[in-house]
Amino acid sequence: MREILIRNADLILTMDDQGGKFGRELTGADILLRRGVIAGIGPGLKSDGEIIDATGCLVTPGLVNTHHHLYQSLTRAVPGAQDALLFGWLQALYPIWARFGPEEMRVSAQVGLAELALSGCTLSSDHLYLFPNGARLDDTIEAAREVGLRFHPTRGAMSIGESDGGLPPDALVEEEAAILEDCIRVVDRFHDASEGSMLRVGIAPCSPFSVSRELMRDAALLARDKGVMLHTHLAENDEDIAYSLEKFGVRPGQYAEELGWTGADVWHAHCVKLDAGEIGLFARTRTGVAHCPCSNCRLGSGIAPLRAMRDAGVPVGLGVDGSASNDGASLIEEARQAMLLQRVALGADRMSAREALFIATRGGAEVLGRTDTGLLSGGKRADIAIWDMSGVEAAGSWDKAALLLAGPHKVRDLFVEGRQVVRDYHLTTLDLPRLLERQNALARALMA
User: Fold this and answer.
1) Which member of 39, 287, 340, 406 lies 3.0 to 4.6 Å from 397 by CB, making a disulfide possible if both were Cys?
2) Structural domain containing residue 212
């Protein structure tokens, strides 16, 4: 791989440990990329390799997405689900998702990951919990390789259908023995725990209302035996809390703790309704949270206690959630929404633009167990976003670091492991217009 020098950036936000709460802020500096890592950062660097001029630009670590359902990019703005709460929303969409197959999974994942890349994301998780008509986790893994993003897919599952008192239709649930067997298969085949890994795999039963207590416990035991992370939905809205109290006699946090679902190898999506005791539990155990503000707004779930979680020491990252509940997958817009919601709930001084960007970068990397990305420092992976601050969005801005207050929502250039995935606002790894044409054809077939 050829050496690359990103030269003369107006400002570099490092998110490292060397300066201030959110790292050093370097003006007029350069970054040298060599063999997938950052070989140098500072002013006046030299290279015989490719030169990327960053004059007028802000450079940040690549953004990190800690929760997504990539397949849902095929079901945006579906009538009947547009104005429903979580459980009704799911019930409207399950019959559509039941008609998916391997191509729908692969194409929708490509589109979702392309959208993330164009919003500055270099590392994304994915929570795939339904596998109709021969679809497999392998389909999304193939898509991520083609797009070129660092990927942390999770093998999800649903095992309790409507006939057994669960929410999903029986056609979308699986036998629990088969679920665990396939979890073993995908971990053994794909998981790479090494430094700089492009692909790690997690185990992720969908939610406490779609799998049994036994599967939750067995999944935790299996994940620890295999050395992989655990993920699920938790405490998403009032219906979720009521279900937990009725079915299990405890709040979601206690249910998670009883079944081994706390610890630094666990992260939960949403957590909108965590109470003070649950926040304390997650802080003590270093249990991570994927905060999904746009989806929480779209479904009317509420405003998650992000400020309280951060102050207590809970590891928190951002997630765009699925495009059927967010209708988009822009991680930079997600970061802005996270900041704005804490301000409207608690006051304008309770979440700065810098802190929200930290959560979107290093915060997310830490939730996913990554110390090798999410920050810009010598020896770390070359996952880098370049934002052109010379456009109309930032015209007149006094502070380029305040990207979330006044700045572009599309990245100019994006590097993953030192490979340029976005160049001058265009994806370099796929023919995006052709991909979108296929995506829309698949959507029309589902509508029909």
Assistant:
1) 406
2) 63-367
- Residue that has been written with the tokens 């299990």 in this structure: 248
Spell 347-372 as b/e; 16+ CB within 10 A means b.
eeebbbbbbbbbbbbbbbbbbbbbeb
User: Do 302 and 405 share a domain, yes or no?
Assistant: no
In a domain, 347, yes or no: yes
Q: The domain that contains 388 carries what CATH number? A: 2.30.40.10
**Is the CB of residue 351 less than 8 Å from the CB of residue 345?**
no
Evaluate whether residue 433 is within a structural domain: no
**Whole-structure pTM over 0.85, yes or no?**
yes
CA torsion through residues 246, 252, 256, 258, sign: negative
Give yes or no: residues 391 and 327 share one domain.
no
Do 207 and 348 reside in the same domain of the chain? Answer: yes
Q: Looking at the structure, do residues 310 and 395 belong to the same domain, yes or no?
A: no
| Nearest to 286, CA basis, from 307, 312, 305, 308 | 312
Within 313-396, residue ranges assigned H as helices are 331-346, 353-358, 364-367
Q: What is the DSSP letter of 352?
A: -
Q: How far apart are CA 155 and CA 150, in angstroms?
A: 17
Core vs surface per residue 204-234: b (16+ CB within 10 A) or e: bbbbbbbbeeebbebbbebbeebebbbbbbb
Three-class DSSP category at 64: strand
